[in-house]
Design brief:
The complex is a heterodimer of chains A (144) and B (398). Chain A has a single domain, classed as Sufe protein. Chain: A (Alpha-Beta Complex), CATH 3.90.1010. Chain A is built from 5 helices and 3 strands, in the order H-E-E-E-H-H-H-H. The termini of chain A are far apart. Chain B has 398 residues and is an alpha/beta fold. Chain B is built from 14 helices and 15 strands. In chain B, helix 7 links the parallel strand 6 and strand 7. In chain B, helix 10 packs parallel to helix 13. The chains are: A alpha+beta (144), B alpha/beta (398). At the A-B interface, helix 1 and helix 2 of A face helix 11 of B.
């Protein structure tokens, strides 16, 4: 990916993140906090799942440009997916961060983080929102 | 000053995170290597020559600490793993045994976690109350506000000599004088003050003092607990075992050693203590007053330039130490730290272990620059140049 495009995607999602607010009908959402013990990123993520489909995700909190933009892009990509599709997407993203084989097609704008492995201290920032979502998906699985 | 003594500074880095830990001069590293290479044996086992030398060096280090903080007696200096352990020993070994649920402990919201959580723990276990001294508009502690916060139940005031986010110095001597007239103990967290300015426990008249070696050019894992002798005599050892017992036959017949051994169970951090002793020699060869003076000059130099940058929100324009905390408008503190890291400038971003300070200053996180005597004006120029260009910062922060 071209460096300028990468930067544009990340900065755009940082400056204008998708769904960065607490939902007004909070009761319909599952909420999880995700934070990074080695830095100060701290996000609350709200997920609305109906009939096994992710209907909506929003988030609130304080986090760096990488975490915030990554959360925004994740939200773009996950809304409308089934829980299984979401898991597959997350696994794919994780593979990319850890330099394993991954499917670029599935990730859309999230490929902007395909060089983040070079900055070890920021890898976790990019993955932080995914950890939050996974906690929720695992909760659902346990409840089933 | 003295840059040539620091092997770390041969790398192309600008190190502005001295509040977290300081770099080590060659003298300290050599002194520790000498122990490990040439007389590596245990202490207090003087049956053979090299062990005798260990004893001498270890106790010699204690004497250096005593002199450095001007304690009356060498037994008043206890080696610990650092300020955190010292503060926990003070809270759990001394105050836990004398406080009741009716008593109050006074601290402030700008204390480091290590001077908050041990007291919260006492509140949670014995039911005493932790209360906060109001800070003034500049987030300073004034004697006036201390007086206002004291009640007949107040038994302890525990304060940092200099705080780790805002770098303000507290009027410890005046507080001690007033506190002692009211039968209140004073504990001083010296982690950020002892490395940077002269500390005289007799002049201050503090009851306890805690500080760390690694923040003053010494090794990690070594620190000091100072206490007035009559108080340390009452401090119950939390660690029991080798080195601290005189004799034991049965649970009813256990006899502890005298101070300081009683509070130093287990094989001590010998290399650490010896290294700290060397660090003290090193700092004294420069002079603590000179170090403080130089840091304040450097701070002023930095502040005059930083204040000109319109989008910087500086949390402590006035301060008594080489600590400067700020935020860049619209840019998350951690992103600023990452940006500076690209130019090998080491700064800290975050809440700096002062998690209850946020209500006081209105921001959760900040970037902290903490200076030491080996920092230079030219390093500050480099920092200022990078901060001056906000567009560059935005582009390069990711």
């Amino acid at each position: 990916m071209d460096e300028n495009l990468r930067r544009e995607i990340i900065l755009d999602n940082y400056s204008n993140p998708k769904n960065k607010y607490i939902p007004s009908n909070e009761k319909e959402y599952l909420k999880v906090n995700t934070n990074n013990s080695s830095c100060i990123d701290n996000l609350d993520i709200y997920v609305k799942i109906e009939d096994n489909i992710i209907k909506d995700i929003c988030f609130e909190g304080e986090a760096c440009a990488i975490s915030t933009s990554s959360c925004s892009i994740m939200i773009h990509n996950l809304i409308g997916k089934t829980v299984d599709e979401a898991r597959k997407y997350i696994e794919n993203f994780n593979n990319m961060l850890n330099e394993n084989a991954y499917d670029e097609e599935l990730l859309n704008e999230a490929v902007a983080y395909n060089t983040i492995y070079k900055q070890n201290n920021r890898k976790h920032c990019a993955y932080l929102p995914y950890e939050g979502i996974l906690k929720i998906l695992n909760q659902i699985k346990e409840n089933e | 000053m003295n840059i040539e003594d620091f092997p770390m500074l041969k790398q192309d880095i600008i190190y502005f995170d001295n509040g977290a830990t300081t770099l080590k001069p060659k003298q300290v590293i050599d002194k520790m290597n000498d122990y490990y290479s040439n007389y590596s044996a245990s202490a207090h086992r003087g049956d053979y020559d090299i062990s005798y030398k260990v004893d001498q060096e270890y106790e010699n280090a204690r004497e250096k600490v005593r002199k450095f903080i001007n304690a009356e007696e060498v037994e008043e200096v206890i080696f610990t793993s650092g300020a955190t352990e010292s503060l926990n020993m003070i809270a759990n070994g001394f105050f836990k045994n004398i406080l009741t649920y009716q008593d109050e402990i006074l601290i402030t919201t700008s204390e480091h976690a290590s001077n908050v959580l041990p007291w919260f723990h006492l509140q949670n276990t014995i039911g005493c109350q932790v209360k906060f001294i109001n800070l003034d508009d500049n987030h300073y502690v004034t004697l006036e506000n201390v007086k206002k916060s004291i009640t007949p139940q107040t038994k302890v005031i525990s304060l940092a000599g200099v705080t780790n986010v805002l770098g303000d110095a507290r009027p410890i001597k005046e507080i001690c004088k007033f506190a002692h007239l009211n039968n209140i103990f004073v504990v001083m967290d010296g982690a950020q003050s002892v490395p940077h300015r002269k500390t005289d426990v007799k002049d201050l008249d503090v009851d306890f003092l805690a500080f760390s070696g690694h923040k003053m050019c010494g090794p990690t894992g070594i620190g000091v607990l100072y206490g007035k002798k009559e108080l340390l005599e009452e401090l119950e050892p939390i660690n029991l075992g080798g080195g601290m017992n005189e004799s034991f036959d049965s649970p009813d017949e256990v006899y502890f050693k005298e101070l300081p051994a009683r509070l130093e169970a287990g094989t001590p951090n010998i290399a650490g203590a010896i290294g700290l002793g060397e660090a003290i020699d090193y700092l004294e060869s420069i002079g603590m007053d000179k170090i403080h003076e130089y840091e304040m000059e450097l701070r002023k130099y930095a502040m005059d330039k930083l204040i000109e940058i319109p989008y910087l929100d500086i949390l402590n324009i006035e301060s008594d130490s080489g600590i400067i905390a700020f935020n860049v408008d619209d840019i998350f503190s951690q992103d600023v730290a990452y940006y500076l890291n690209k130019y090998n400038i080491c700064v800290r971003a975050g809440n700096h272990c002062a998690k209850i300070l946020k209500n006081e200053v209105g921001v959760k996180n900040s970037i902290r620059i903490s200076l030491y005597f080996y920092n230079t004006k030219s390093e500050i120029d480099d920092l200022v140049e990078l901060l001056k260009n906000k567009e560059k910062m935005r582009i390069e922060m990711i």
